[in-house]
Amino acid sequence: MASDEQPQILAFVCNWCAYAGADLAGVSRIQYPSNVRLIRVMCTGRVNHGFLLRAFLKGADGLLVSG
Amino acid sequence: MTQKRLTPHTEKTGSIAIIGSGIAGIQTALDIANSGFRVHLVEEKANVGGVMAQLDKTFPTNDCSSCMMGPKLAELANHPNIDIFAYTDVLSLEGEPGRFQLTLKKKARAVDPERCVACNICAEKCPQKVSDPFNLNLNQRKAIYIPYPQAVPLVYTIDKEHCTYFTKGKCRVCEKVCKNKAVIFDQEDEIVTLDTGALILAGGFEPFDARRKGEYGYGRWPNVLTSLEYERILSAAGPFQGHIQRLSDGKIPRRIAWIQCVGSRDSHMGNDYCSAVCCMSATKQAMITKEHDRDIDTSIFFIDIRAHGKGFDRFYERSESENDVRYVRSLISRVIPNPEDDTLSISYAGPDHHLQEETYDMVVLSVGLCPNASTAQLAKRIGVQLNEHGFCASDPLDVVATSKPGIFVCGAAQGPKDIPDSVQQGSSAAAQATALLADTRGSLVTAPSSHVERNVSGEEPCIGVFVCHCGINIAGVVDVEAVAEFARTLPNVKYVTHCMFACSTDQLQEIKQAIRDHNLNRVVVASCTPRTHEPLFRNTLREAGLNPYLFELANIREQDAWVHRAEPEAATHKAKELVRMSVSRSRLLEPLYETSYEVVQAALVIGGGLAGLSAALSFAEQGFKATLVERTAELGGNARTLYYTEDGANPALYVQDLIQKVENQPLITVYKEAQVVSITGSCGNYTSNISVKDQSQAISHGVVVVATGGQEHKPAEYLYGQHPRIITQKEFEDLLNSEPDKAKQLQRVAMIQCVGSREPEYLYCSRVCCTAAIKNSLKLKTINPNAQISILYRDIRTFGFKETTYLKARRQGVRFYRFELDHKPRVNRQDDTLMVSVFDAQLQAAVQLQADLVVLSAAIRPRPESQELADAMRLPLDEDGFFMEAHPKLRPLDFATPGFYLCGLAQGPKFANESIAQARGAVSRAVTVLSKKKIVAEGMINRVDAELCRACGECEKACCFEAINVTQVAEGRTQAVVTEALCTGCGVCNVACPTGAASLSHFKDEQINRMIDD
Q1: Where do the DSSP E strands lie in B556-709?
Q2: ipTM of this predicted complex?
Q3: What is the topology classification, in CATH, of domain B207-367?
Q4: What's the pTM value of the predicted model, to 2 decimals?
Q5: What's the CATH number for B108-188?
Q6: Which residue of chain B comes nearest to A47, CA vs CA?
Q7: What would be the CATH architecture of the domain defined by B712-861?
Q8: How many whole angstroms separate alpha carbon B878 and alpha carbon B946?
Q9: With an 8 Å Cβ cutoff, are A37 and B581 in contact?
Q10: Interface touch A27/B62, C-beta < 8 Å
């Protein structure tokens, strides 16, 4: 991830709830900062430690696993 | 082109004709065509879509209307079992139910649909500009046209009334420029006769002609608009690209007023009924206006706010509290123009009874829904009766049945209604029509076409990127062209383009063409959410000969443009990154293959009330087995004590008859005192564990219909339970029915509305209570004409034709007192007398009412055991505790979980006839699964690498779906094996697996890692 003055947040989100929630935020036009990137997984159970460590290694400042 | 008679004359025909192609007609067509019947979809206009295609957004989610319709229109256009007859009139109908002959006139478009590729060159070159009816004549189109880019069928039409060649005999420019020679000036009308088993009228409505209300100045003052015109103004694809402006001078209005009930609830105009949608539509328009520009003042002038649908009251509340929409309760008598600046003045009586005048830059008239003239004419011609308002008359409890057997009605042709009600009625009509023809299922359908798939293994990734503007939804914030330019710089990207609507039929054709022309083997679309549009694009890949899993969506709308509106640069940057992530991932995508498995052609219906019984019987009528599970010892539910309706039906009698039919129906098994303990399996193949009188029983079925009902709230206020003469509305109905002599003694009855509804804790309307109170008042008036009845209300919500019952009650002297939530009435007992005091918000005065009886219109609540059931079935409940549908607008009867459907009070408060219609509609949805012998399973499942698996069983322990088990696969060899039908592709086993043997296709470690790296 490109480093920037803003913290870079990476989120792993479940397709069925958190990703849908992010869509709903869009439909409801809820505004939030743009420094977050979502990675959709079919279930947050799919997220292993390796992904998280890798994200930090690649420069993420914060991670969110939501599902 | 007369269809060859495929069945002997004595047999029924396995096809159904639908007249009208708005959202109701489209839903009906898709349901029928997906259940094994052929559909003839007839539309008098040049293209399908109806009014919904003209809407900008829809309440109460403010979803984009054309985005929601996109996938439906695309499915319709490509469906092998739907023949679309657009630009076609119905001439006659002969024959009898099951065996009709329908004669149609296909009007000459002067364009050959086989040759037209919708390149738009003809329209570009056409010199003749005419006003554009699709945009309500607010701008111009050419004399050769398609109404909007996503039009289906995507064929141009010459507007012969305006074409210079047809009017003056010269020009022929379009003919010259058309490379495909599609323009045929001497094309003739064609008469076609079709065999059809049943007919469904879905002709929709016509907006009220606002010119008839001369006092509002529509047609004279440029800044007075109709609600439909305003909808087009809001639309990004509309005449002003979504910029709100006055028609007189193009300036942004600072103050906009909405006037409600224009042509509705208006006896002078001959429209006694309520149009049912305008309150929410105006609320939506005001909210969207605020989203466009927070500084525009929005005021809605109304009589009652009718927010009677699911989620509507919250929407209304939000518009006031979050969007500062102002609501003024006042009937406006006229609009006065101020010619010097083209503003408009409105006067109204304020709360202090003084006349107040306000000036607005723009006035929007919320015009009512009137019967569609051509549907009414057609109905008359084929012997279908109309009701007093000119809509198709239908049975009070079987709302889709017309006066003529074999002919059904749905949507606004039956009466004014909103989109979800139209959609569920469409499904209901589909169920009733196909039930009539159940034994012909499959006789006229074409097998789905198979596409030869190109083998891409060993090829370098060759990626095509398509960036969508989505009108101004994305392009209004994100610099789409910059994103496209950026995509060009990414490795392996061979083709990039940007387009107005990636999901439109023409654009999907272009994607297919690009795949072929550039030999693409991966496709990335940057547009909206994969949750709604991924299936559409995957199918496009399939049709282009690519494996559908070689596709990736970058969500730059819901998760970018819409949420970073104030930061266009940051949003553009994010869009680029999202595209880069998707492109990186797409490089690693692999083709996946779907497997198919047998469907258990039986249904499980949970709940034995009116909805559940109707659903079970409807399954049987369709020829499928059903198991009905009822928690109590008796069938019938709430309907057993619904003795009459406002329109003369008797649900209590009806349900007794229904119980008999269900119990005598050999295809239905009824379990009473039974509960569903668990459901496992997947769509088309479920196994339920049911406890019947504490004995466990396993049942196999393909689908589930949840019809668990609701119940009347037991009030904890107004002294309920503390005095025998304070009862609920349901108890009152019981009294009126079973003890009329006692009821006759009642001289003064006070009713209090919204008891437990529309309060902060339960912010929803129970929909039926206003009508119930009025219906019971009228009943009491017939028993004792001298009874004084007072109804204390907040808004009277007698939507649709129920309004006439309200009028009748007013004429018969029932008194109405309006109260506000912060001045709720009080009930006091003084010795043996009950006193109700209320502050009447209209009179602005306190009123004391003595009452022999106080009737509380108590809310409808979800069943208390819903939560337990929801947990057992892993289904969602909404914030009020009712079951939550997949989408409130276009999927009101489906759960998000495939194979699960819902209906009746379990979904939300509703009337008896709506429960019946929903139940049948849910069956229609379910039959789209049951009618198939085999179902195709998702290709995105877990695979086990046999070489890496050491059969430790960690995956088996981790799996919630019992989809992976350590099994002996050969002599001396055990390994984890995936049951494909059960695997949901969640990937939990991947994390549990210590060796990396379990690997979820489409979400492999490497595919995710690559996104992280980016």
Answers
A1: 595-598, 602-606, 625-629, 668-671, 674-682, 685-692, 695-701, 703-706
A2: 0.94
A3: FAD/NAD(P)-binding domain (3.50.50)
A4: 0.85
A5: 3.30.70
A6: B991
A7: 3-Layer(bba) Sandwich (3.50)
A8: 43
A9: yes
A10: yes
